[in-house]
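Dear Dr. H.,

I hope your travels went smoothly. While you were away I took the liberty of generating a structure for the chain from your last submission, since the lab meeting agenda had it listed for discussion. I wanted you to have the full record in hand beforehand rather than looking at slides cold. The sequence, exactly as received, is reproduced here:
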Amino acid sequence: MSLSENRKKFDWSAFDLEWYKKRYQPVLSFFNVKSDEEIRRFYETRGPALKHSPNLFFDEAWYISRYPVVVDHVAAGDYVSGFDHYCKVGFWSCNPHWLFDEDYYRRNFLDFPIETLAENGFRNGYDHYLNQGGRLHCASSPFFDPAVFLADAPDFVVNVDDGPYISLLKALPNADLQMRRFSPYFDPEWYLETYPEVKREAFLWNGPLHHYLANAKPTYYNPNAYFSEQFYAKAYEDVADAVKHGAFRNCYEHFVKNGQYELRQPAEDVKLRVYAENPKVKSEIAAHTFPSVFVHYIAHGGIVEETGYTAHEREYISKSVYQDMCRVRLPLLLRSGLDFSYEKPEISVIIIVHNNFAMTMSALASLRANYAGSLQVILVDSGSSDETRHIERFVKGLDVIRALGNVGFLMGCNEALGHVKADFTLYLNNDLELMPNALENAVARFAKEPNAGAVGAKLVRTNGLLQEAGSIIWGDGGVCGYLRDHMPDSPEANYVRSVDFCSGAFLLVRTDLLRQLSGFDPDYAPAYFEETDLCVRIRQKGADVVYDPAVVVVHYEYGTSGTLESNQMMVVNQQKFIEKNRAYIETRPARNPHQDLWARSAVPATKNVLFIEDFLPFRHLGSGFTRSNDVITAMVKSLGCHVTVYPVFRPMGMVDDTYTGFPDRAEIVANKGLEDLAGFLNSRPGYYDVIWVARTHNAERLAPVLAECAGALSGCSVVLDTEAVASGRELQKWALKGEQPQHSLEEMLQKEFRSAGIAQKLVAVNQKDATTLRRLGHQDVSVLGHLQSAHRFTPGFTERQDILFVGAVHDRDSPNLDSLIWFANEVLPLFDPHLPPDVKFRICGYTNPDIDLKKILAHPRVDVVGRVEDVTPYYNAHRVFVAPTRFAGGIPYKLHEAAAHGIPIVASDILCEQVGWQSGEDLLGAATGNAAAFAHAVVSLYQDRTLWQKIRRNELRRVAVENEPAAYVRTIQTILDVPARNPEYLC
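The corresponding predicted structure, in token form, is as follows:
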């Protein structure tokens, strides 16, 4: 059959009278249209308005919904219909049907330009597909792959002349076919289960796939369990922006066409880049067994069992590899040697060994590399028969104690305790490897927490999963490692806790306390439960046992004993432990998987608080996040609360200060967001006493979640920390634009606080905001401002120079960005007659990477520093601090921070009003937006030493009175209704 004959048979540009009569018979009967000529005229005159398609191959309704600009053209009379538009101009760049993608087909199957197509008698890729590609079983789009479809619908009859695509179009609608898989990229069963409303509207659609590709809310629906529109849009702002501007129908279209090949992450738990590194995945993709890593992932549910090993078998293999690596290291260590010679050791390390020479040498090498300070290593050779007997030949400075036989861990440790010379004693197994800074971090914990008697580690098994993150004693005397078999980076494993006990594989203890307790109780010889008993006795002495996640150890586990032997010893010694420590055991919770949350800490918190913020509130983010950070710190350090910090917007990966940016006893949920909150709360029923919601707008976001989780939140109260009343700020923005606001202040306030009813208590940042909240009908309102301590001994007038601004710029609507642009353009030029040209205007603070301040603020005096780890040196080096804000709400943290550092301030009068300070006494104020007045104030303060000293003296007095730490903590204490643990705030 010739090409021209093919084109005559399947022509997407022709009106198919017979098909049209059959497809729209009810409509034609209603209008009493009968003859062929009447039907043609009906289509031409009324068909476009009724969204009628002219033939099987073109879907009018889908076309105009997919390309809304066409609707405008039709309304303007440029084209009669979507079909008319497609025939005249859209055929090369637009798609005619929801099952065909022009760009996809040409890129994957037609590697030649439009001229070549035309020379062969084809108008576009669709023309080619209908007449050739379809009969060759080519895929028409990512969502229709004949191979997948026919495998899922083996009974479907394909007309040889038509091919699968046209045969399917002719068969639709068909309820059975609609539920078949058309391609690997869409799961119809999952879709209907996830979105039951689609099933209720089934009469409107040709199946789930049609609904997904043609519905009016393309970014609302997900196509399968492995892709999340919400996650992808948040993770890749470039794609979200492209979708917003119509380049893609939704994020999934981008992902299927581009993102999957770039190994972008399609959902929270689908890490394609990691998955792609699997050797089996690599080989199967290279062999074209699967078209992409994502399709491979879907086909295998994200799990690739290369050998079919069980979890136990895989750990066995990982242990074998660990032993092999010890043997690989051994020749190197024997050649280079190790040296533990000491004069006055900082730490004494006790290691009990019985054979396993290569493993012992590897552990010693890890210890030496881990800690640069002076170590006394006491090695007890418990009857070894291998090269351990001659270990002194290869390791200098060891204190070796040799036993006649295998005396076991306990007796060997107690013997070694008599030889300890350092203030700290480390019990260390010989079947482990210390991760960077483990020993240094463990010693540092004692300095941070003087009441600590022992510090334990995060133990990670050779298979990469946790052995324990601290350990639990249950009310029946049973014990377990907390989070065993979990990932080491889980939030629950990454905060400091007081625990029942930590494993003796790595246990650092104060030597004087050990000697008071005479080491391990010999009744537990040869081993097991001795460290559990020791930790309980340490706690009974009034000292703390601390789990520190910064101390990480890879542990072979049971490297020197057989599993059967170990289990037998455990059973015997557990009963001894119960008999000896019954009083302590009775204080512990009953064994229950749901009690882990309470049992994981040996010291009950005064309150369990869930602190919800827009983002994890790092101090460098400014914009109220610094204040949230202070609140969290006060709750943890001064009030003894357990605080879980939970972000509304899921962090895109870990940042440097995910854990260091908060008190180390705070639990930081760095792997979840608002979409996970309901599941998170329901997984912790009854756990939280208080939910502290930061920022008013989050009340509206959280209202449905809290309602859904009401059962899990029984007895939990909600505190809404408004941070600032935003309505006034919005009015200020309207005024700056010279426009009339759309709503009155009262209307804006009602809208702003319409969801505040979720909270039993409200917190305002100043009395002005508190008065507003009470006027709106909220009775229980507390005022919590900013925390600062006055720095009285800082450089004086002559030791400083330049002008400073500190503040974060998160987006282009930021008040800080507005004030900086205004200051650079309007105020800085006025300095020239009065200040030398070398006087700089320096800008410190976090800036969104998408905003280039250096380009925006192109003035010779401007020096953009960006985010700094410590802002104090900048406060101490500059002479004047400026806050030229033109719209704001609440109290600007930067004013209090600058004042606390003793740098005099020039601020807009709206900030003076918010902070309640007197212009000319506590700071210098200038009318908002008045460049001349602001410039005059800055120059006066910069040049007048007497004025400068007066302002500095008064602002420091203000800070000392108004931002006093103890009062700040007492306010939070009252809000939470808890007793204070520490009399003073610990910074």
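Two observations you may find useful: The mean pLDDT is 91. The chain has four domains: 217-306, 316-599, 605-787, 797-962.

With kind regards,
E. W.
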